[in-house]
Specification:
With 211 residues, the chain is of the alpha/beta class. It contains 6 helices and 6 strands. Strands 2-1-3-6-4-5 form a 6-stranded mixed sheet.
Length: 211
């Protein structure tokens, strides 16, 4: 059982949550975690690099000169990759690098990533994040009160335009709704900042999915 404190915006502990490791799979599945991270990076690859093969280059298909009895090396058409202006010998083609994982595996991998952060004390829970108007200074002050001075992923219960605009200019800080949280973004940041609402939603949603 993990005892997770909940802080207010000033950094004062207001309550604590008892988190059962079984709510996040019971243990960190490193092999599954690696598979999910590889998929995350593969899906970010564009794969649009392309070059022309000799079949794509304009020009005659006739041999430049006969093959034998000229004293020269054998030569093909002017479109061969051996000549300037010819096609590329092993031409690049547009590729789809995307990978897929079953939904349950992705959820289990995400839970393993969160559990790894919990075990290393890199998860911070705040009771709420609300702003009357977007202001970067206020959000920076909250991070300072919570002693977050490294890269941080802020996970909200739902998308909030005011919070997003308050944090978008802070270096190495990303914001996303809890429903969109994934292994890649969790592992890419040193700290996880959950609102209490988002953290409880995550636990209850997984219980509901299991049932």
């Amino acid at each position: 059982m993990i005892n997770l404190p909940v802080y207010d915006r000033e950094g004062r502990e207001v309550e604590s949550l008892k988190v059962d490791e079984r709510a996040f799979g019971g243990r960190v599945r490193y092999a599954l975690l690696k598979q999910a991270i590889v998929m995350y990076h593969a899906n970010k690859r564009v794969g649009t690099a392309a070059t022309k093969s000799r079949g794509m280059v304009e020009g005659s298909t006739r041999k430049i000169y006969r093959q034998k009895h000229t004293g020269n090396a054998r030569a093909g058409t002017i479109r061969t990759g051996k000549r300037v202006g010819g096609g590329v010998t092993f031409a690049k083609v547009a590729r789809d690098f995307s990978q897929r994982m079953p939904k349950k595996q992705k959820r289990l991998a995400r839970n393993s990533a969160i559990l790894a952060k919990l075990l290393s004390n890199d998860v911070v829970v705040v009771d709420e994040l609300k702003f009357e108007r977007p202001r970067t200074k206020d959000f920076t002050a909250i991070l300072g009160n919570l002693k977050i001075d490294r890269s941080c992923l802020v996970v909200l219960g739902d998308y909030n335009e005011t919070v997003y605009r308050s944090a978008r200019n802070i270096a190495k800080v990303s914001i996303m709704p809890v429903a969109e949280s994934n292994v890649g973004d969790i592992c890419r940041h040193n700290k996880l900042l959950f609102t209490k609402e988002a953290f409880l939603w995550l636990i209850n949603k997984d219980k509901a999915d299991e049932n």
